[in-house]
Amino acid sequence: MQAVNYETNLQHAVISAETNARYEYFAKQNSYQSNLELDTYIGIMGFAAERGIGNSNWTYRLTNTKGVFDPTLYKSGWTPRGAVGKGLSVYELSTLGNRISLGADFITTGLAYNQIYNGSAQSITYLDAGVGTVGLIASYASYFHGVQIPVVGEFVSVYGIVRATWDVFTYLGFNYGPSHWYGNNDTKWFK
């Protein structure tokens, strides 16, 4: 008769139960993290546009004075004086970055409201929609009325960073965490 190793069987049972519980927990609580959603990508793009090129003093042009497509980037922030009247338009790169960021904020807030409307919202989605709405109101107030609401922009920016970081790290942990290092061989830890 073969001896039964109760300690090894107990270890296998505990590891299997823990793995199943982890998968059930993540499937119920964080099912959206098996893949990053579109709003995470758009939020990261908007943040990069605002903080990256939105703080730039560079300028660019799309066409030359003859109206021919000739994009040029001026790192010095050059703005032509006499050539503007002759058909040369030079734009600030920071304005482009801020507009991309505002568009990304609008899209991500709309996606949050769409999830709420469709009934597929999670509890964090309501907070995303609320913070996005406050951020859009603050942005539009500065565009249309020339006033800025203090601290709102910074709060929305910090919230966006924390939210995107949480999504990315949860995604990485769920898909590439320790439970995936050895594949299906849960006994590898004890060999």
Which consecutive residue ranges, at least 5 long each, have pLDDT under 50?
A: none
Mean pLDDT: 79
Shape: elongated
Evaluate the radius of gyration: 26 Å
Number of helical segments? 5
**% residues in beta strands:** 5-15%
Distance between the termini: 25 Å
Main beta-sheet annotation: 3 strands, antiparallel
Helix amount, in percent?
Answer: 55-70%
Order of helices and strands: HHEEEHHH
The side-by-side strand order for the widest beta sheet comes to 2-1-3
Compute the number of strand runs.
3
Secondary structural class: mainly alpha
Please give the domain count: 1
Characterise the protein shown here.
A 3-stranded antiparallel beta sheet has the order 2-1-3. The two termini are 25 Å apart. It has 5 helices and 3 strands. Helix 4 (123-144) runs antiparallel to helix 5. The relative contact order is 0.13. The model has no long low-confidence stretch (mean pLDDT 79). The longest helix has 26 residues, at 93-118. It has one domain (34-174). A hairpin with a 5-residue loop joins strand 1 (59-63) and strand 2. It has 191 residues and is mostly helical. The radius of gyration is 26 Å and the shape is elongated.
